Amino acid sequence: MSRNPNQMNLVKKFKAGQTYMDLCPKDKALSYSFPELKIINHIKTAKKILPPIIIGLIVWQYYLPAQLAVTIVTILFALSLPIQGILWLGYRSQSPLPLYLVDGYNRIKSQLIEKKIINPNRNPNEKLTFEALMKLMNLSKIHLGNYFGQDDDTSNQP
């Protein structure tokens, strides 16, 4: 019995989305530049509030004369929202970086190479994806003190 390739692709995207969700930095300042940080926040909020909503829908079905089909469709829709967000994150993580981010990626990478944190020959054929950018940003935060490897303007003032 062979599996549908699209089904496997969805499973891979879902797993990639979960990995990407753990990989993304949690700083609010970055959420203005990266919409995935807002999506991650919405997914985490949905995980907290969905159980009471589902229970409320079941109670609504029990006590009010609502149609069962409407309740089931509403519950399925509510449950699908975090799943849709994780799938979107999976697609986003494998998306190529837009040109305006490639320069920043290369600048961070050169600073990490200069400080001998990463090997210059690490992977020359590496795809420039959002996942690769987030990994590099996390390394930059750990080793350079901030996500973009920039000096603070406030530290240079007398």
Automatic annotation (TrEMBL):
Keywords from the named record: Cell inner membrane, Cell membrane, Membrane, Transmembrane, Transmembrane helix
Assigned GO CC terms: plasma membrane
Claim: Lipoprotein is one of the keywords in the record: no
Membrane topology: Multi-pass membrane protein
Chief place of localization: membrane
Transmembrane segments: 45-63, 69-91
Localization: Cell inner membrane
Family matches, as InterPro entries: UPF0208 (IPR007334)
Annotated family: Belongs to the UPF0208 family.
Protein name, as recorded: UPF0208 membrane protein YfbV
